[in-house]
Amino acid sequence: MSARVTQRGLWFEEFEVGTVYEHRPGRTVTEADNVAFTTMTMNTQALHLDAAYSSGTEFGERLVNSMFTLSTLVGLSVAQLTQGTIVANLGFSEIKFPAPVRHGDTLYAETLVTDKRASKSRPGQGIVTLEHTARNQRGDVVAVAVRQTLVQCRPAGEDQA
């Protein structure tokens, strides 16, 4: 009989403060991604949609919507950290976009576990604070976000890896 492994995120007990997780593969951002996300979210900012306008800005071209960048940053972490183990996102803080993302850039993410504690009001769950960082293919930091998540503790009888 062969073993069966189901991909999942980490149980609360498996998170270790100070650990950095590198999330791979990266995600190359296309013009279609940017236009679809920007129009889907009703963001009419010309800097994301209007090539003629954007060519006259200090950037000289359209930029990727920063909310797409944030969503992709968090999304890149899901399979490794929270797939099937998260209860809820509790909040985001210290969101920064120190450099723009352009069409054709590839985003790579990493996450530092900065804090964790058992929930006082929800037995069997814990709060984990994660600092997500996105870099482009040149290693430039393009986004940083601190996120608090509510995560399930390991269920009774669940094998430890």
Polypeptide structure, described:
The protein has a domain of 100 residues: Hotdog Thioesterase (Thiol Ester Dehydrase, Chain A). It is built from four helices and five strands, in the order βααααββββ. The mean pLDDT is 95.
Write the layout of secondary structure elements.
Blueprint: E1 20-28, H1 31-40, H2 46-49, H3 51-55, H4 66-81, E2 86-96, E3 106-118, E4 125-135, E5 141-152
Antiparallel strand pairs: 1-3, 2-5, 3-4, 4-5
Protein name: MaoC-like domain-containing protein
InterPro entries: HotDog_dom_sf, MaoC-like_dom, MCH/BMMD
Domain MaoC-like: 17-134
The fourth-level CATH homologous superfamily of one domain is Hotdog Thioesterase
Instruction: State the low-pLDDT regions, or none.
Output: none
Give the N-to-C terminal Cα separation: 19 Å
Please work out how many helical segments DSSP would assign. 4
The overall pLDDT average reads: 95
Strand count, sense and closure of the main sheet?
5 strands, antiparallel
Order of helix and strand elements from N to C terminus: EHHHHEEEE
CATH architecture label of one domain: Roll
Q: Which oligomeric state applies?
A: single chain
Silhouette: elongated
Strand order across the biggest sheet? 1-3-4-5-2
The name of the CATH topology of one domain is: Thiol Ester Dehydrase, Chain A
Class per helix and strand makeup:
alpha+beta
- Give the DSSP E fraction (strand runs of 2 or more residues): 25-35%
Under CATH at level 1, the class of one domain stands as Alpha Beta
How many strands appear in the DSSP assignment? 5
Radius of gyration, CA atoms, in whole angstroms: 18 Å
The percent of residues in helical segments reads 10-25%
